[in-house]
Amino acid sequence: MFRGALWLLAGRGCVGRGLSTRSGGSTPDWTEKVSEIKKKIQSALPGGAWDPLYDTSHLPPEHSDVVIVGGGVLGLSVAYWLKRLEKPRGAIRVLVVDRDHTYSRASTGLSVGGIRQQFSLPENIQLSLFSVDFLRNINEYLAVVDDPPLDVQFNPSGYLLLASEKGAAIMENNVKVQRPDMAALPSVITMVSQEQESATDRSPSLTRDIRQEGAKVCLMSPEQLQNKFPWINTDGVALASYGLEGEGWFDPWCLLQGLRRKIQSLGVFFCQGEVTRFSTSSSRMQTSGGKEMTLKRIHEVHVKMDHSLEYQPVECALVINAAGAWSGQVAELAGIGKGPPGTLEGTKLPVEPRKRYVYFWHCPEGPGLETPFMADTSGAYFRREGLGHNYLGGCSPTEVRSAWAGYYDYNTFDQNGVVGPHPLVVNMYFATGFSGHGLQQAPAVGRAVAEMVLKGQFQTIDLSSLLFSRFYLGEKVEERNII
Amino acid sequence: MLKIIIPTIMLIPLTWLSKSNMMWINSTIYSLMISMVCLPLMNQPCDNSLNLSMLFFSDSLSTPLLMLTTWLLPLMIIASQYHMTKEPLARKKLYITMMILLQIFLIMTFSATELIMFYILFEATLVPTLIIITRWGGQTERLNAGIYFLFYTLAGSLPLLVALTYTQTTLGSLNMLLTQYLTERLTHVWGDSLLWLAFMLAFMVKMPLYGLHLWLPKAHVEAPIAGSMVLAAILLKLGGYGMLRITMMLNPTVNFMAYPFMMLSMWGMVMTSSICLRQTDLKSLIAYSSVSHMALVIMAILIQSPWSFMGATALMIAHGLTSSLLFCLANSNYERTHSRTMILVRGLQMILPLMAAWWLLASLTNLALPPSINLIGELFVTVSMFSWSNFSIILLGINITITALYTLYMLIMTQRGKYTYHIHNIKPSYTRENTLMLLHLTPLLLLMINPKIILGTMY
Question: Which of chain B's residues have a Cβ under 8 Å away from the Cβ of A90?
Fold first, then answer.
């Protein structure tokens, strides 16, 4: 504007040169002067961009009663059961925080999706039994008005675990070297090797365990195996256990989406963000033995948004750590494990990510529709995928159509889940560390954690052997055969 | 009256000029001293009123309310100490200033002689309250709560302004002491009904009446503790006080206008008590119980009998102390667990036994256990309502039962039973909190001995 006025005043002759020729000195360039004046004024005035009404819809709410860190199947299951078991409806405000809404690295989506009851720990068996019941009746649990029913594609083809005669220790070492994600120890071998003849009528204690809990498993000798599944090469196989009911595989993504849909209809908040900090307060208390401990409470969870420094402190009463493979990091944020090693303060949450690969191949002369989910003596496993002679497995065949890798939330201590509250960080509950069988036990674990939160104790399935304190006390709760 | 107002105004420079470590102590102690100065007003020399000046007076209705107001300021300051710890110093001082400003307006409101002055200060109390709710409240919903609070009260009191100016021009004066001697014609015109409505509506919204009560749960729940305390204890009573004063000058032949509000109050009393039974949020439960108790006060004032006026006044004082105490107790829970949901915080009796004793006493007074002054209020109201209409006893009886039900539900949910795992390391009760509860309970329990002073003008 100044320039235009000057141009008019000074006449056309001065356009190219400004006003320089008049005074003969340096050129006062008016646009530059104007911008300099503007900068001076701005630096004199306080503050930068002040926008009091900016959009905060992407941020989580400022207050939530329960914050669930991790939006995978375990986290969503806990949210579902919290909402389902709360006595007056709408009592608890639940927030689920996940840092990746595409679930690109979450264990749930990359899982092979098997479900079995062939564990040796009774708690695991009960968890899987309830989960099978949940999956079978999924539309009674997760129905949402006006939405189509869920088809979780449960193929109840059973699990087939093979065992060789060789010593368990050697096998274990081999498998650990080859596939550190599998710790195979079918105790059936040691038991059956004592009974050399037939194995069908005599049921070793493993199957007795499983049968006691209500799972239907049968043991097969190599001859019976050959009869039923002619395509199996039974060299080196001493015994096999075959799950007859309630075992198989399903679509984990469908379960996840079904849970997500149901939870949203029940009023749970979802937020995409990363938990970067817990604001805690500590208090020193004395145990009955006179020993002093520092107990902590989490007051706030700082949720940081993606690709920005913006974060929202969410005030909460409880935090549930269902962060899967990264639960160890989340636990460290809360100060779990910071202390001299060997003490309760110094006991870390021993959950870390373990990568494992899944391969997808096509085999036209393959086993066919009756293929169970098979796990070999070497630890290799595979299952049928779909109806077109395709198979998914953990060991790579020669020709592979595709492959992917996912993480186990691997519990380095005893490869079984951690459930329940932490003794020192009083309002953090765990639902993680299931090392590969988390998906299949998710519905039952969610219910157990919700019962612990709402009623103070486990009511339907007693998971007190899976509490955190076992890491400090050194009591391993190991599976005797595990994949 | 200036001996109360000037010191209260001077509390503001006291706050701003105190050293940072003496700020809370100074304001608490000096406001306690001011409430002691307010005590001699109780010595009413005659039946009528103590006329202190052209602008201010106090009679046996306004004095208990005045005492309640001045007593509550130190309690509000004590209660706010914890949640303000993280704020910068200037903001803490601003918060206390807002409370003191509110206090000044409330003292002047309760002692005003001129009705227009009463109205101006009545509206002026909205501003500091709004600032306290929206600036220092807990959650995002506080903006909504502030808007509801402001606009409900503002819209309700606009007709009151019109009515007051009309009355001023026709009568010539709105001095409360003079208007009680007003004579009204014994036939009514329909304009009288409108005038009745205009006068009463503002106070109905403030009380709140059942149909116009939506602002209360929001405002009470979202406000910080001092805001909840002052809202529950005093601001609701402004409505009651206003109604009691205004009914003196309304035309008695227009009393039929009271019927719709009587019905709303009776029904609302039962409804809000029932809602309390289904509440999951602790503060929300206490807020709805406030609506229920105030519905009793509205009914009492509308039937205009000596017994009911006595009951209304007693109930206002008793409810003010009880409700404020319950909010303080709920806040002590909230500060520890950061959640107001009742089912997540249970079994506190095992962990904080002294606080459980305060909870018990608060619940007992809330459900009007004899011989507390709550009972006196409720009993007088019930008896006078029965004599006004025999059938009302059914609803009143149902209400008393449901009040007992939800109060005990609240007590048992929060105190009894097995405690939830995650509260076993909450901080034990501070002396400050115990003092706060004791300071609430002491007047409540001592008034049992001599309830005459709160029975108002009709005693």
Answer: 280
Cβ A145 vs Cβ A268: under 8 Å: no
A227: which 2 tokens?
């009869």
Q: Is the residue at B47 inside a domain?
A: no
Burial class (CB in 10 A: 0-12, 13-18, 19+), B405: middle
Q: Is residue B50 part of a domain?
A: no
Q: Is residue B21 part of a domain?
A: yes
Residue B103 lies in a domain: yes
* Beta-strand pair A269-272/A94-98: parallel
Residue of A nearest to B333 (CA): A317
> How far is B145 from chain A, CA to nearest CA, in Å?
16
Per this entry, what is the length of chain B?
A: 459
Backbone torsions φ then ψ of B378, nearest 5 degrees: -65, -40
Pick from B1, B138, B12: which is nearest to B62 by CA? B1
| CA dist., res. A300 & res. A320, Å (int) | 13
> How many folded domains does chain B comprise?
1
What are the tens digits of pLDDT across the range B115-171?
999 999 999 999 999 999 999 987 878 888 999 999 999 999 999 999 999 999 998
B12 is in which domain, residue-wise?
Answer: 1-41+56-449
pTM for the model: 0.86
- CB atoms under 10 Å from CB of A127, counted, come to 28
Q: Is the CB of residue B400 less than 8 Å from the CB of residue B378?
A: yes
> What ipTM was assigned to the predicted interfaces of this complex?
0.88
Q: What is the pLDDT of residues A456-476, one digit of tens each?
A: 889 999 999 999 999 988 888
Chain B interface mutation, best of A300, A318, A467, highest count of B Cβ atoms under 10 Å: A318
Question: Cα A41 to chain center, whole Å?
Answer: 54
Three-state DSSP class for residue B331: helix
Measured distance CA(B395)–CA(B264) in Å, rounded: 12
Residue A267 one-letter amino acid: G
